[in-house]
């Protein structure tokens, strides 16, 4: 996988690289699935690498996979780490910034259940986060709002509760950042220039609130 990554990453940012053994009927050897963020990068890699000996004695057969499943599956958003990786690659580390508008604890008891004469209480840790992402060179701002939650088996243990709270905070901030990035379109031109456009189809009601209104809404 390291050799594959080195060979194909020179054509563009890679989303993932996976190498697998061939099926028994196909004989010894391996096949790999290399995913690019950009279809243009994938096409260039295919044209340059097909039939070449990149890091092995026999030439590689490289093709672009265009087959799609008949049953359309829900497209999952990129996680926050992938979003940041993509932004850093095309815009640079100084080409964007993010800040937390609000991160509030909305934890409480989920409820009480009586079973075998005992009262069972399960404590839940909940946080709501609103994040703003700014692209200063393009005059674009976007927001993301998310809810994070986790159950604490022993709500009476302070250490366990603090650990769960930190984990949920990190999770919630990441989800909010990912939500903000889903409203952005990166347009990569052939000359290497990148444009940032706001995707209005992903707008949410909270995008039209002021910061004070947003904080008040979360508190309620």
UniProtKB/TrEMBL annotation:
Taxonomic placement: Eukaryota, Metazoa, Chordata, Craniata, Vertebrata
Localisation: Cytoplasm; Nucleus, Nucleolus
Domain DM1: 78-185
CDD domains: RRM_RDM1 (cd12364)
GO molecular function, one term: DNA binding
Superkingdom field: Eukaryota
GO CC annotation terms, alphabetical: cytoplasm; nucleolus
PANTHER family referenced in this protein's UniProt entry, alphabetically: RAD52 MOTIF-CONTAINING PROTEIN 1
Annotated keywords: Cytoplasm, DNA-binding, Nucleus, RNA-binding
InterPro entries on file: DSRM_RDM1 (IPR057652), Rad52_Rad59_Rad22_sf (IPR042525), RDM1 (IPR040224), RDM1_RRM (IPR034200)
Protein's name in the database: RDM1 protein
Record organism: Pterocles burchelli
Major subcellular location class: cytoplasm
GO BP term (any one): double-strand break repair
